[in-house]
Amino acid sequence: MGGAGRDACSAGDPGEKLPVTDLVVQRPEGLYCPPGDFYIDPWRPVARAVITHAHSDHARYGNGHYLAAAPSEGVLRARLGEISLQTLAYGERIVHHGVTVSLHPAGHVLGSAQVRVEHGGQVWVASGDYKVAPDRTCAPFEPVRCDVFITESTFGLPIYRWCPDEDLFAQINTWWARNVDHNRASVVACYSFGKAQRLLSGIDPSIGPVIVHGAVVPLNDAYRAAGVELPETRMVTEVRDKADLRRALVVCPPSAVGSPWLRRFGADAQAAFASGWMQVRGNRRRGGYDRGFVLSDHADWPGLLQAIGATGAQRVIVTHGSSAAMVRYLTEQGLQAEAFETEYGDDVVEADAAAATEAEPGA
């Protein structure tokens, strides 16, 4: 990275046994690769950052140089603006300071990647966030064999088990169609990046018009530019027939629900929240939503265990989510398991709130 030559081979002499050291360690700035002198998804500004995906808790502004998967370029630039960005095709390898680095599909959102790091006879994989379920808006998760696997555990409890997409989208379309019959808008709150596009890819646009909040528009544009098919969408200012507002499916960030922007859809508009957290019914009631749809861009409990098992790793490091429960379970299964303290998982909602506030005047 940063001008390093590309190499299809592993670094070093295959017969040479170097001292065994951790290839990724914790530092105040983030997860650091000592032999390569770079960080993975740092939460403080650093000289060289390898980015797994463009969500704001993993991709932050201020780094000197960014390395990311090629499909993520559009969303990264939409979120971070002008940055020094180097991209790799999935599976392409580079050698930096003797460390071989490659990026592999994580199935989380457009351009999401697992970071494979090889040095001194060891292979580590940092997964960022990932999902093993099919998703037409991004490349599918690719298991990568390794010695050490760094995994998330956002939904790392047995209660989290997702239903098939066809069942989920049938629920959403049925709810929308019923609201159209009652002449009321259907509002779905979800994260502007990733969740919104996955939702749009699965709905039936023949039911009615689709309106998106201004915070969602630049991300949709980036997805379309990357070749992802999404239905036609409009901003509310582009709607000529006001009757369409009461037949529409409205996709917006959670912060827009209850805002003045939403009032134009009528006082009787039905509001739903699309998130994996809707698996727990109390979360919908506490949020004041009429309906909850269990839609997640993270792996559920079976998906996490499937992904971890497919790596063949005997050592697993858990970064965020239900890390204590996941470490305990993996240890009981005979694996060497531990946790890293990170700052992942908290900024996505805040970023959407900021985007909604900034986009509202012209939304």
UniProtKB/TrEMBL annotation:
Q: Which InterPro entries match?
A: MBL, RibonucZ/Hydroxyglut_hydro, Xnuc_lig_assoc
**EC number(s) per entry:** 3.1.-.-
Q: Which residues form a coiled coil?
A: none
Task: Give the keywords, sorted.
Answer: Exonuclease, Hydrolase, Ligase, Nuclease
Q: What class of enzyme is it?
A: hydrolase
Q: Which domain of life is it from?
A: Bacteria
The source organism is Ramlibacter albus
State the name under which the record lists this protein. Ligase-associated DNA damage response exonuclease
| Cited Gene3D superfamilies | Ribonuclease Z/Hydroxyacylglutathione hydrolase-like
Q: Which GO terms describe its molecular function?
A: exonuclease activity; ligase activity; RNA endonuclease activity
